[in-house]
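Memo to structure team: turn this sequence into structure tokens by end of day. - J.P.
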Amino acid sequence: MHAIQVLRHGGPDVLEWREVKTPEPAEGELLVEMAAAGVNYVETYQRRGIYPEDTPFTPGGEGAGRVAGLGPGVEGFKVGDAVASTNFMGSYAEFSLLPASRAINVPEGVTGDQAAGSLLQGMTAHYLCHSSYSLHPGDICLIHAGAGGVGRLLIQMAKKLGATVIATASSPDKIDLASSAGADHVVNYTEEDFGDAVERLVGHNRLAAVFDGVGASTFDRGLTLLRPRGTMVIFGQSSGVVPPFELRRLFSLGSLYVTRPSLGVYVASRQDLERRAGDVFAWIADGSLDLRIPHRWPLREAATAHTELEARRTTGKILLDP
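Reply from structure team:
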């Protein structure tokens, strides 16, 4: 089979299209013929070595396809089943091995592309607004990068929970995308300070939560917008890692909370995995969650996908087609 492999950490050019041996499923594993692999920002961190992986490795932690083989001891799946998974390694390939314990059956009404394109970002959005900070009717929240894959899904889920949503975006087109997801207000952060805009819209210290996938360039200002006992949820670092800061600031700004969650912890149990994936798939199937998949490249062009993602020239979801 063919797969993308990383032989050394570095830029997008280290993503190499190589012929490798098709793996054999071990005990508890599924061999899946991949229909599509999702591309997520975390894979750029792994490629660069920010989240180091031993080389060589095949990147990709999200995908969907059909079961092509079963390892010993696997129950609940059969050859031909449509499945999807996330939080594993190796989806940038024609065939991947999935732990059966982390695989989810894809229900009728959800396509392979939708399954591959929604699971990681959809479950991330789910845990952010249901668990990292549980939004309630009347809460006001700020969602950075509202036109991005996670951001746009998070806006929709926050509105389902009754929150008022302020989103940020960087261009008129991206503002339209965030608005179409249901954001009550969208701030163009290239034209004005997002903090000044938030205070103009809702007043000082009114935010129950800030959902920040940007990191270094937005963290400090975001803290100043929170209400007493408000929560800063940092789930990404596209502008860089948040530097160390004096914890006493949380006291002086109103007994604030800061959390840096990860999806793996929030779907560690089979029950949580099925609950979050089940909600995401159900909302896609009934049409109440709008999933955009505007970008798709052949698997061999994974380097182009990473280049475009890191240059912030993409919106919605990116898929790689084996």
